[in-house]
């Protein structure tokens, strides 16, 4: 996400043929944007050292054969690929048919579904870990809070949630990302931290960094990574 008009929602929420998405209240043109970007998105963010460090943190704490939900799985790299290679059972969900096709081809060891997260059943305590890398940014603030609450409830007691976002205080900001129009909403860093704590998570490690995607139209953007645990282990 750019600190100015350059933004991305690494993940998508679009009413699109072939994807089982929710009602109109959850529709957006985001899937169209990321259908167009395809593998270019992966290339633009492949050099993120903070993302790799975040996955390393998670891998160090997961028990063998853990179940992991990757919300907004994109092309499957690096998140699902890294976790599946370590022997974990990974379900990736995304509303972009193009992204799901790419991920299924690149990471056959994981399962990918073209589905809106709002329609995915999330039974209580069903996952050991949940990854939410840049997948909230085209939701309203109320939706972001509700989804983090639901994802926390889907964790087993002591389960882990890793969340990454662009910590800027903006609401329904119209800009472009890699030449594509996007509308995003986000929170300032302290409000993101408050949001996950209110959902019942303890922040065990946080990292803030600046990152410039590898794309001619990209600009430096702030990234915040939160590494959290649900209570009751």
From TrEMBL:
Q: Which UniProt keywords apply?
A: Methyltransferase, Transferase
Under CDD domains, the record lists: AdoMet_MTases
InterPro entries assigned: Methyltransf_25, SAM-dependent_MTases_sf
Methyltransferase domain mapped to chain residues: 68-159
Q: Name one GO molecular function term.
A: methyltransferase activity
BP-aspect Gene Ontology terms: methylation
Q: Name one Pfam family in it.
A: Methyltransf_25
**Protein's UniProt name:** Class I SAM-dependent methyltransferase
């Amino acid at each position: 996400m750019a600190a100015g008009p350059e933004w991305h929602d690494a993940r998508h929420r679009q009413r699109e043929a072939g994807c089982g998405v929710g009602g109109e209240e959850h529709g957006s043109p985001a899937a169209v944007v990321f259908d167009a970007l395809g593998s270019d998105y992966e290339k633009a963010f492949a050099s993120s050292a903070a993302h790799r460090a975040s996955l390393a943190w998670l891998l160090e704490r997961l028990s063998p054969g853990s179940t992991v939900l990757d919300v907004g799985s994109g092309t499957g790299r690096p998140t699902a690929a890294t976790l599946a290679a370590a022997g974990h059972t990974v379900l990736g969900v995304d509303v972009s048919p193009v992204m799901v096709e790419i991920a299924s081809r690149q990471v056959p060891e994981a399962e990918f579904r073209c589905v809106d997260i709002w329609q995915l059943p999330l039974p209580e305590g069903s996952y050991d870990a949940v990854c939410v890398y840049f997948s909230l940014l085209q939701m309203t603030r109320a939706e972001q809070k509700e989804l983090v609450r639901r994802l926390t409830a889907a964790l087993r007691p002591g389960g882990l949630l890793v969340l990454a976002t662009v910590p800027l205080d903006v609401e329904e900001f119209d800009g472009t990302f890699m030449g594509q129009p996007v509308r995003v909403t986000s929170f300032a860093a302290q409000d993101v931290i408050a949001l996950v704590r209110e959902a019942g998570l303890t922040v065990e490690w946080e990292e803030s960094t600046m990152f410039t995607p590898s794309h001619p139209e990209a600009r430096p953007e702030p990234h915040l990574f939160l590494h959290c645990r649900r209570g009751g282990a």
